[in-house]
Backbone:
């Protein structure tokens, strides 16, 4: 079982190294297959681990394994240590399973790109990093995985490096994440200093009575989590990250990496439970983010950005759940979200692919008639996202909302926010669906889809490098994409429908039981609360869908005009502008002032002086080096005399 | 009948292997036709060093306790055995680096014979346990090295280097011998452990003759380790000697001298620790200052590496000055990456020298990283290692050396070491910059006609040696735990 876990971890790394080292010695298509096969292998290995773990009694399901011990000082060990337990296996299955479908989809999506090999090497590197993150058995490996997913995310957002906007987005994501990485690393250092161990779960077992320390640690961890998961107040990088190729958005910025913050909170729940105020803050940030993102999603006109805001909003639900102590519910929603959000992104990718890289929904309309499979997939994804029974989102989201009800008055505030969120979800999800799919094809869509081919598609998508012409064959599905793209979408569509059925909180709860040994929930809603939450959520989401239909479907209502609200939402609540004003401009001004008044005259001058002095000293030593043997002998004789005299004098 | 001491021949196996190799190479020099001498000599020396390497490991494994070998004049212990492993390993790599050195075939077999003889002397020195064997071992390898420095008569500066080394080296040896005589005069003993016992028994602590002798022994050994202010021969000799010999001297001579310094100070003079710890710390600081400052302004890479080796000697004197078990551990650990990095770095210089047929400077390193990817990556790693950056053993070595000084309570010494490290980054990274960040078009020397018909063929043996050195540098970082354990057991052989 442990060996399978190691195989799961190493397979994608091996693929990344292989593609990198072989360089042009491997065809583009072969590189794609190597990456896909390795992720499939990782998934198979994860299944083996899961099956073996399933056969054990719940209390013994925790197996650390150390491949190599780097440093030992007393009881302090630093090594390559993984931990196989129900939580890590759960994440391994989601990451490698959804990851496989998305990498397979990429074969068709990236076909013909000039740098396909680089893309697949990065993708394999990402899957490895994410698996390292979730399998980590000590703080150092967790930090390494955390940093590596940030790196691969940076590389993949900026994959089309000839687009300035992609480079800017990659940098923004990296910088925002660096803030979180720093606070998390500081929290880890405090933990290590306090606990004298790196290993899970001992490292987190901070006993009661360390008030300020545990609060500081929890805040640091929360900082890392909100940055990685694009929650308030470090959320602004995620929409920009949509500059990356669409499969990247599906894998990294929907299904896996952005949910790492939720994983972190669940993994370190012992710390958060000692710092209940910080845990409530996490839930509050989640609630705030889900409302804010839901509102912004209403006015976005870029198909991927709408989905990006919806991702932010759904992760807000997961934070709410984890912050309320409903760990299993948060993880369950993480899983179903991975299914339906990857589905939405990939279906959107089919549309973008067919429309020559166009992402503006105002130009779309009536796509559904020409792309029926995509329409069906997108509809399923939207219904699952909104949480209409029996689609998967219903089961996972409602249990989070119900958990909020069981946590006192603060819980009721969050409960209300979550319910408003479901209304917004219904509204923005169906706004998007109704604008893009039903009705008569718009002239723009007609132009691209009626030709039945998208020969010019990829060049348009990939910006300036249109120099290499390549002929795509005419696809049978009138532009719905090759089998390697539609098949993963259909598999995900099935999962988005049935994926939620594995847990229906009032009746059966295998996910909660599975995760119970790792993280015992704090919130246990009663059946009445579950029923009430479901009822409210269902009604409100239907209301959201209904309003969307009245406005965009039937055209009965007109889009209400509130100039101020619209402007605020289109500027995403002015977060970018505020950060620009609060941090960027003062920093630049300060740096310029320092450069002008301090750097130049004081530091620069003294460095120059110092460098000159050092150089002078160096030359001076060189001058002593006469090359004459008698000088050398004299030096030795003199030092013998000095040392002897000193020794005799001070003996 | 004269009573003969019992001799543990097995303990002398590394030396005997190398002496045998020397004999074979010399016989080959006489009997074989000229064109076969190079292969035969190299093969014999490689076999000798490999045998010494293996035997030293076997001795390490089978010697959990300390034995005396010949009437207490030589010690068989893990401390010496680990040093022998390092020396033999450096020698083996040096044979690989030397093979394609353009040297006339006439004396090539003698070259390998002397290399083996020098290795044997060093292996003997690190196990020495009295003042006589100490001097014997020192002269044994020094005389071999004097000749090795001067052996390539066609190389400009080689003869000069050999002669300078001979004169100054003799002076240094004389100081050491005089110091030994004073110590013998004061205590009436030769063996290290008996000197210590005599000091204790006769209350000689602070005796004028004794401390004067101690001072001279420190100077003599510091000379061999090329620590400042006894270092002045180092740049000239390192620059003038054939590059593989320079690499061998930087790695193996320094290992032997430093290991013996620790042994003699710790075994013979523990009562005088209040004097020698301060003296060694002062010498360490002087070496750090001189080595780093002078290295900053060098253009010749060999000369820069020579000064860098002076600074490195300073770093390795820090754990000796700390005079504690963790210091012994740190020294023995640090010598492992240090010696492979030294041989490796000089091997890369040798390779470049052969390509250009000119002395290597920072200017004509330009573009080498792109032309020779393996050598470029290896050289970068060695430079990172000397500077103490991960992922190399140099990082861990420095860390341990500093923690030894810290444990001794000498935070100021740690600060000096850290400042010196910061300064050293400048010239180590200058090499990396020269190799990667300048286009080859800036090359100031046009390659000689040898390279005109395309670059010279790759030298497989040299590349293998560099690869092994690279592997050692990184492996000593990865496998810290077992290596530290080995060093700890080795240091336990000394009376801390």
Residues:
């Amino acid at each position: 079982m442990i060996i399978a876990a190691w195989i799961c971890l190493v397979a994608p790394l091996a693929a990344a190294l292989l593609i990198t080292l072989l360089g042009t010695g491997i065809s583009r298509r072969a590189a794609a297959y190597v990456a896909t096969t390795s992720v499939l292998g990782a998934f198979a290995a994860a299944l083996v681990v899961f099956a073996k773990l399933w056969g054990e009694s719940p209390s013994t399901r925790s197996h650390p394994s150390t491949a190599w011990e780097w440093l030992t000082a007393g009881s302090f060990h630093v090594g390559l240590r993984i931990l196989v337990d129900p939580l890590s296996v759960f994440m391994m299955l989601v990451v490698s399973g959804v990851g496989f479908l998305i990498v397979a989809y990429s074969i068709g999506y990236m076909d013909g790109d000039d740098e396909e090999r680089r893309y697949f090497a990065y993708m394999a590197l990402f899957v490895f990093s994410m698996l390292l993150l979730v399998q980590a058995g000590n703080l150092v490996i967790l930090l390494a995985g955390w940093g590596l997913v940030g790196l691969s995310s940076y590389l993949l957002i900026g994959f089309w490096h000839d687009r300035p906007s992609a480079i800017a987005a990659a940098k923004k994501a990296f910088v925002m994440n660096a803030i979180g990485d720093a606070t998390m690393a500081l929290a880890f250092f405090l933990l290590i200093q306090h606990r004298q161990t790196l290993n899970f779960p001992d490292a987190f077992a901070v006993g009661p009575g360390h008030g300020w320390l545990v609060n500081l640690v929890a805040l640091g961890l929360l900082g890392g989590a909100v940055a990685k998961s694009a929650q308030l107040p470090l959320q602004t990088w995620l929409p920009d990250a949509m500059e990356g190729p669409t499969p990247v958005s599906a894998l990294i910025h929907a299904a896996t990496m952005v949910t790492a913050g939720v994983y972190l909170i669940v993994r370190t729940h012992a710390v958060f439970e000692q710092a209940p105020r910080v845990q409530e803050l996490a839930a509050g940030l989640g609630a705030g983010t889900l409302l804010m993102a839901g509102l912004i999603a209403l006015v976005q006109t870029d198909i991927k950005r709408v989905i990006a805001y919806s991702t932010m909003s759904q992760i807000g639900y997961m934070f709410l759940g984890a912050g309320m102590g409903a760990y299993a519910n948060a993880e369950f929603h993480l899983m179903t979200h991975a299914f339906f959000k990857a589905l939405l992104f990939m279906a959107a990718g089919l549309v973008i692919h067919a429309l020559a890289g166009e992402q503006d929904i105002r130009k779309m309309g009536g796509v559904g008639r020409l792309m029926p499979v995509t329409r069906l997939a997108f509809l399923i994804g939207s219904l699952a996202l909104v949480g209409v029974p029996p689609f998967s989102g219903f089961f996972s989201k409602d249990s989070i909302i119900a958990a909020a009800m069981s946590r006192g008055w603060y819980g009721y505030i969050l409960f209300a926010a979550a319910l408003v969120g479901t209304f917004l979800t219904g509204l923005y999800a169906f706004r998007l669906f109704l604008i893009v799919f039903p009705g008569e094809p718009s002239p723009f869509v007609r132009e691209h889809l009626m030709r039945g081919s998208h020969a010019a598609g990829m060049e348009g998508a990939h910006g300036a490098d249109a120099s290499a012409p390549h002929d795509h064959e005419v696809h049978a599905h009138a532009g719905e994409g090759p089998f390697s793209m539609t098949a993963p979408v259909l598999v995900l569509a099935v999962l988005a429908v049935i994926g939620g059925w594995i847990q229906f909180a009032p009746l059966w709860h295998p996910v909660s039981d599975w995760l119970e040994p790792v993280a015992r929930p704090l919130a246990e809603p009663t059946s009445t609360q579950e029923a009430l939450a479901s009822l409210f959520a269902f009604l409100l989401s239907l209301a959201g869908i209904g309003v969307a239909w009245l406005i965009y479907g039937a055209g009965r209502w007109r889009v209400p005009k509130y100039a101020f609200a619209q402007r605020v939402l289109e500027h995403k609540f002015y977060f970018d502008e505020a950060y620009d004003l609060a941090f960027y401009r003062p920093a630049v001004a300060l740096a310029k002032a320092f450069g002008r008044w301090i750097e130049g005259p004081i530091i620069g001058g003294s460095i120059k002086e110092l460098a000159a002095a050092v150089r002078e000293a160096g030359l001076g030593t060189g001058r002593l080096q006469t090359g004459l043997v008698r000088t050398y002998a004299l030096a030795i004789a003199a030092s013998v005399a000095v040392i002897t005299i000193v020794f005799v004098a001070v003996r | 009948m004269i009573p003969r001491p019992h001799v543990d021949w097995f303990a002398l196996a590394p030396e005997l292997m190398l002496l045998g190799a020397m004999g074979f190479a010399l016989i080959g020099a006489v009997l074989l036709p000229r064109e076969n001498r190079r292969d035969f000599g190299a093969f014999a020396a490689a076999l000798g060093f490999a045998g010494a390497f293996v035997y030293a490991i076997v001795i390490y494994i089978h010697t959990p306790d300390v034995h005396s070998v010949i009437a207490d004049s030589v010690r068989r212990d893990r401390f010496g055995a680990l040093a022998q492993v390092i020396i033999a390993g450096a020698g083996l790599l040096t044979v690989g680096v030397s093979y394609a050195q353009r040297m006339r075939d006439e004396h090539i077999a003698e070259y390998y014979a002397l290399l083996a003889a020098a290795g044997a002397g060093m292996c003997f020195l690190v196990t020495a346990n009295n003042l006589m064997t100490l001097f014997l071992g020192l002269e044994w390898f020094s005389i071999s090295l004097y000749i090795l420095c001067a052996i390539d008569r066609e190389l400009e500066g080689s003869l000069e280097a050999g002669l300078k080394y001979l004169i100054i080296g003799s002076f240094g040896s004389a100081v050491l011998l005089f110091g030994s005589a004073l110590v013998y005069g004061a205590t009436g003993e030769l063996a290290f452990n008996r000197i210590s016992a005599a000091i204790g028994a006769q209350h000689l602590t602070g005796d004028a003759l004794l401390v004067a002798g101690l001072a001279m022994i420190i100077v003599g050994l510091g000379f061999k380790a090329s620590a400042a202010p006894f270092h002045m021969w180092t740049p000239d000799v390192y620059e003038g000697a054939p590059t593989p010999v320079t690499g061998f001297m930087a790695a193996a001579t320094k290992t032997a001298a430093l290991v013996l310094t620790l042994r003699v100070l710790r075994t013979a003079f523990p009562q005088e620790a209040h004097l020698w710890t301060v003296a060694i710390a002062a010498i360490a600081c002087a070496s750090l200052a001189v080595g780093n400052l002078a290295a900053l302004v060098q253009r010749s890479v060999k000369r820069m590496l020579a000064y860098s080796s002076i600074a490195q000697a300073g770093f390795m004197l820090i754990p000796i000055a700390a005079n504690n078990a963790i210091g012994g551990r740190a020294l023995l650990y640090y010598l492992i990456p240090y010696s492979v990095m030294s041989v490796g770095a000089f091997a890369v210089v040798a390779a470049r020298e052969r390509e250009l047929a000119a002395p290597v400077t920072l200017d004509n390193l330009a573009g080498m990283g792109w032309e020779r990817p393996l050598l470029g990556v290896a050289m970068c790693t060695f430079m990172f290692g000397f500077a103490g950056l991960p992922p190399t053993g140099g990082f861990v070595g420095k860390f341990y050396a500093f923690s030894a000084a810290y444990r001794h309570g000498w935070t100021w010494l740690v600060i000096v070491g850290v400042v010196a490290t910061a300064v050293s980054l400048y010239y180590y990274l200058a090499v990396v910059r020269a190799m990667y960040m300048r286009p080859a078009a800036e090359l100031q020397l046009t390659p000689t006609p040898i390279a005109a018909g395309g670059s010279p063929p790759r030298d497989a043996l040299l590349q293998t040696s560099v690869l092994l050195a690279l592997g050692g540098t990184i492996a000593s970082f990865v496998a810290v735990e077992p290596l530290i354990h080995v060093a700890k057991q080795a240091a336990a052989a000394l009376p801390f």
